[in-house]
Amino acid sequence: MDDKFYIKVETYHVADRGDSANVHELDADKLKAREVVKIDIAGDEVSRGDYKEAEDPTKYKSEKTGRGPLQENWIQSADPV
């Protein structure tokens, strides 16, 4: 890789389900250029080499909080968001 190459990731966490249109208050040009990537930690595929059952949110239940495992469509039913 060239020293001039970089990737910049900006995140902003808001209490919604990822459906706010412009949380960063970008101008029209930046809004048109941006890419929104939604990540579903329970539904997105994980490569076989990276998969660990102990880290699978569809199987894990926290003993401390009692939360989990995540069910299908968890994003729509999660509370609190």
TrEMBL record:
Cellular compartments per GO CC: cytoplasm
Any coiled-coil regions, as ranges: none
Superkingdom as given in the UniProt entry: Eukaryota
Span of domain Phosphatidylinositol transfer protein N-terminal: 1-81
Region of interest: Disordered: 47-81
Cited Pfam families: IP_trans (PF02121)
Residue spans of biased composition, Basic and acidic residues class: 47-66
Transmembrane segments: none
GO molecular function: phosphatidylcholine binding; phosphatidylcholine transporter activity; phosphatidylinositol binding; phosphatidylinositol transfer activity
PANTHER family: PHOSPHATIDYLINOSITOL TRANSFER PROTEIN (PTHR10658), VIBRATOR, ISOFORM B (PTHR10658:SF11)
Protein name, as recorded: Phosphatidylinositol transfer protein alpha isoform
